[in-house]
Amino acid sequence: MSARTGIERVVAIGRRGTANRRETPAPEAVPATAGGEALAAADELEIAISLPLDRFALEVEVKTRARVTAVFGPSGAGKTSLLESVVGLRPASGRIRFGDAVWLDSARRIRLPPERRRIGYVPQEGLLFPHRTVRGNLLAGAARARRAGAGGQAAPSARLEAVCELLELTPLLGRRVGTLSGGERQRVALGRALCSAPRLLLLDEPLASLDIPLRRRVLPFLARVRAELAVPMLLVTHDPRTVQALADELIVLRGGRVIARGAPREVFTDPKVFPLAEEEGYETVLPARLESTGAGSSTVRLGENGDGPLLVVPRTDGAPGESLLIGIPARETILAAAEPSGLSARNVLAGRVAAVRPLVGDRGLVLVTVDLAAAPGAALPPLATEVTASAAAELGLDAGKPVYVILKTAGCVVYGGRGQA
Amino acid sequence: MVFAAASVRDAIQEASALYERQSGVTPRYNFAGSNELARQVLAAPKADVFLSANEKWMDEVENGGRLSPGTRSTLLSNRLVVIARTDGPHRVGGADDLATVAYRHLVLANPDAVPAGIYAREWLQSRPGPGGGTLWEAVKSKVAPTLDVRAALAMVETDPELIGIVYRTDAASSDRVQVLYEVPAAEGPQIRYAVGAVAGGPDPAAGLGFVEFLEGPEAAAVFERHGFVVGTGEEAPDGGGGETPAGGDTETPADAGGAP
Amino acid sequence: MDEVTLDALRLTVRVATVATAVVLVPGTLLAYLLARFEFRGKGVLSTLLTLPLVLPPTAVGFLLLRLLAVDGPLGRRVLGFDLDLILTWKGAVVATAVMALPLVVRTARVTFEGIDPRLEAMDRTLGHRPAAVFVRTTLPLAYRGLLAAAILGFTRAVGEFGATVTLAGNIPGRTQTLASAIFAAQQAGQDDEAMFLLVVALAVGFVAIYASERLAGRTGAAPR
User: Fold this and answer.
1) Are residues A15 and A155 in the same domain?
2) Chains A/C: 3 or more C-beta pairs closer than 8 A?
3) Chains A and B contact (Cβ–Cβ under 8 Å for 3 or more pairs)
4) What is the per-residue pLDDT across B201-248, written as a single tens digit (0 to 9) for each?
5) Cβ separation of C65 and B33 shorter than 8 Å?
6) Which of A292, B38, B146, C162 is in Cβ range 3.0-4.6 Å of B151 for a Cys bridge?
7) Which residues of B touch C170 (CB under 8 A)?
8) Count of domains for chain A
9) Which class for A361: exposed (0-12), middle (13-18), buried (19 or more C-beta within 10 A)?
10) In the beta sheet, which residues pair with residue A325?
C-alpha cells in the first residue's frame, strides 16, 4: 500500500464518512481487531537494537508486517525508549529499517536524524506547540506532506479536512492549545501526526494521560484512524484494552527483552503474560454494534457486523448500528456448567471452553478462555475469564466443554459513544 | 590612613616599609587621582594624611577646613616628559615639535581634572603656537583624554603613532615607552606635590608622625630613587632634564633633576 | 542643550544601538549553544563570557587595549590591517558590546532553557531540520525573553563607561558618551553640568524601558 493510495483513501473516506455516520451503518467493513492484516514488504518494520538503560539493556529483535503492532509491557520495561529509538530521538546501536528505508545501521554508520524518517510521532504528553492554534499545530508537518504528495494530489488542505472529519477537530481549529481539554489535546496531537503524511505512525501510551471516562471516548478515535487510514502503526502501551482494540500483532516487553509475540488475544492469555495484563484488571475487548438504548441501559450485538450474541451494557448515547467496543473484565465473569435461570444478571452467553490454564502465583486462580457461540462469520475472539482453580475443577471445566458466561450489565465497559472527548 | 596621588604609589610604598620598621605603625593607603582624593577627603573623615599631585587640590582641602594647620608643605616635584612607544618613529626635540610632528593623538590624563593632565595643559598653554594663539590651542584637536596617567601610559603602549605626556616617574615605570623629551624645569609648569595632615581622621597623631617621616631624609632618598625631585623642584642651571633615556629603564636619574 | 551635550547624547544612542545590534545575533546563538549542547570547552566558553561581568570595566578596557595594540594579537602587525578601534567611536562600540554581551547571553540562555526541548524534538519529527526548528519553534517561544535580553543589553550599553573610556578615550564629539561626559564633569568639579547630563541620561534610559515595555506588551499573547 503506497502512501499515495492511503492519502487518496483518506480524502475519499473522509468525504463519505460524515454522510454515512449520520444515516446508516457504514457498509464498508471495519477491519477486524482480531488477527491482523499483513502488509506488503514495503511496509515491513525491522528493529534489531541494543540500548543500555538505567537498570538493564534493551535488546529487541523483531520484524513485523502487521498493520498495527503493539508493544506491551509494564512501566519501565523499556517501551518508550524503544519507541524513541525508532523515532530517532534516542541513540541506539543496531539496525532499524522500515520498508526500503534504512533508518539506523550501526555497522554501516548510518543514523538518520528524525526529520529524515517520515514518521508521525504522538508522544504521551502530546507536546502541542503553545504558540500555534490548533490549525497551526495540525499544519505543522504540512511541508513534508506537500513534498511527499508530489503532484498536488491530496493537497494539505484536503488532508487537513479529512483528518479533521475523522477526529472531529473542525470546531477546534481556531482555538489556542492552552484552552483544550485532555482528550482534545490527544486528538490534535494525533491529527498533527497524520497531517504530516507519515509512512509510519508511532504512538506512546496514547491513552495514559487521560482519565478513565476520557479513555473511553478517545479509544474509538484511534480505532477509526486504524480503520480508515492506511498508515501502519507502532504503538506502545501498558493498557491491554488499547492493544486489543487496535493491534494486529503484539510484542510483550519485559526487562528490556521480548518475552512473547503474536496475535493479541492469544498472547494475553498466555500464562506468562496474563499476570502483566491483569494488573489493572484484564478486559477482553470486543467489537459490537449498538442495537438500541433504553432508560438505564443499552443493548448491543457483539461482533464487527453485529451478528453475535446480544449484550446488555450500561447506557450509551448513539445511533443504532454504530460501532462500539465493549470491554468484559475477566474478574467480573461468572461461569456456569448448566444454563442458569432466575438471575439478576442480564447477560448469559453460551459458549465452549477453549482452554484452561493455571495462573502463576499462589492465588489459586485459573484462566479459562471461552469461545462464545455466534454465527460462523462473526469471528469473535475468545473471552478471558478468571475463576478459582477449585471452582474449575468442581465444574469439570475442560477444553471443548459447553459453558455459560454470566455478566452483570454494570460489569461491562463501553468504549465509544458521543460526548466531549 | 594615607590618601596619596597614584603617581607616588610605588615610591611611597617602599618608603612605607621603612617607616613600619622604624615606628611599628602600618599605614594604610588609598591611591587615586588627586582630584578624586580631594573630594573624598572633603566628603568624609577617613584620611589622616593627604598627598596631592598639585597645589590646587590641596587648596581645596585646606579651604574646606580639613587640613591641620601648619602641617602643609611642598614635598616633591616631578618632571613632565613627552613619551612614545619604544618603536615609535616620531621625534620631539622641543615643545614646538608637537605642533608639527605627524603623530595620531596626544594622550593625556584628563586635562581638566587629573593633575598630570592639568600640568601638561598648563605647559602647552604657556607656549606659543604656530600662527598665533597658544600651543595648546594648536594641538587641542589631537588630544585624547584618559582616565588617569596609568591609562595614558597603557594607551601609548599600544600604538607607535601615539604620543603622550606623563610624569617622568610614570615613564620610568614602563619599559615599553621611551622618553622623547623631558620638559625642563624652567619651561614647564610648577609641579608641586603637597602633603598635609588631615584633621578629624581616625588617627591624627599617627598621621602627623607619617608626614614628618615623609619630610625626612630616608623618605627623600626613596623618592629620588624613583625619579622624583625632592622639594620644590626649582633647580640648578643644568636642570635641562639630563639624559633622555631611550628605552625608558628605571634608571635612577641620580643627576637628572637632582635637588640642589 | 549645548553642543557638547548633544554630541554626547547622539553618540550614546548611536554606540548603544550599534553595540546592542552587534551582540544580539551572536549572543542569541551562543546562548542557544550553551543552553542545549554539551561539548568540550563549554565551561571555558561560559567563563569567558562571564568575565566582563566579573572584572572591573577598566580591566576589561585594558585587556582590549592589549589585544588591539599594534603588535597585539588583533593588532595591525598581526592582521595586516588596522581595525581602527583605539580612540575611535568604533572602539567605543566594541568596548560597549563586550560589556553588554554577557548580560544578553545570560538572559537569552535562561530563556532558552525555559523552553521544553521536547517541543523542538517534536518539530523535528514533523520533518524539519534543526535550523528550521530553531526559526519555527524556538524563536517564537523565546521571543519575549530575547526582547528582554536586548533591552538589558541596551540599557547596560547606555550606562557603560569604564571599558569604553579606557579603550576609546573620552574625546568630546568623537568618543565621549553621556556616561563619560558625566564622569568628566564630575571629575572637574562641575557638579551642575554633571547633574544636567545625568538627567539627560536618565531620560534616555526611561525612554528605552518605556518603548520596550510597550513593544513587549503589544506583541504578547494572552498569558498562559
Assistant:
1) yes
2) yes
3) no
4) 888 888 898 999 999 898 999 998 888 888 765 554 444 444 444 444
5) no
6) B146
7) 110, 145-147
8) 2
9) exposed
10) A287, A415
